[in-house]
Amino acid sequence: MAQNATIYKVELSVSDMDRHYYETHKLTVAKHPSETDERMMVRIVAFALNAHENLEMTKGLSTDDEPDIWQKSLNGALDVWVALGLPSEKVMRQSCGKAGKVIVYPYGGRTAEIWWDKIKKSTNRFDNLQVVNFSEKDTGELAKLASRTMRLQINIQDGDVMVSLGDRIVYMTPLKWKSAA
Description:
- The chain contains four helices and eleven strands.
- The protein is an alpha/beta fold.
- The strands form two sheets. A six-stranded mixed sheet has the order 3-4-5-6-7-11, with helices on both faces.
- A hairpin with a 5-residue loop joins β4 and β5.
- The longest helix is centred in the N-terminal third of the chain and has 13 residues, at about 35-50.
- The mean pLDDT is about 95.
């Protein structure tokens, strides 16, 4: 018998000083049975980093042809495609062809570094691709914040991210491996 997703209720307050975006989002996050707390929390931080009124969580791991997060324009065109993990060059190429901007958030420490060393030259041709890495230490600390009901405050300033849940705080410094043109 297949396991069902676990539902997390998240009140996400985003204060992004870099983009002058200040908003609270009420999210219902379905955590796939194979998804770790670390990955789910990275997904929430990725949402905050790209927060917009039209940004949405997708079916993610449950669907092969959808990103983890996307933003569609009013006419249905894909403006932003956000993927987590270590996608293949083929998946990144297809994503870059479907969306105006593609952002990949790899994580996992040395595994992510090896993936990037192997794939980075083949990504040079994608002007709409951005790759932003999270350190293994940061995402490990982030995973400890996961709970079924969360009131998260995420502050972004000068590229640094502060995630707070009650009196617990995790500081993250995303590292841009590739910038979109």
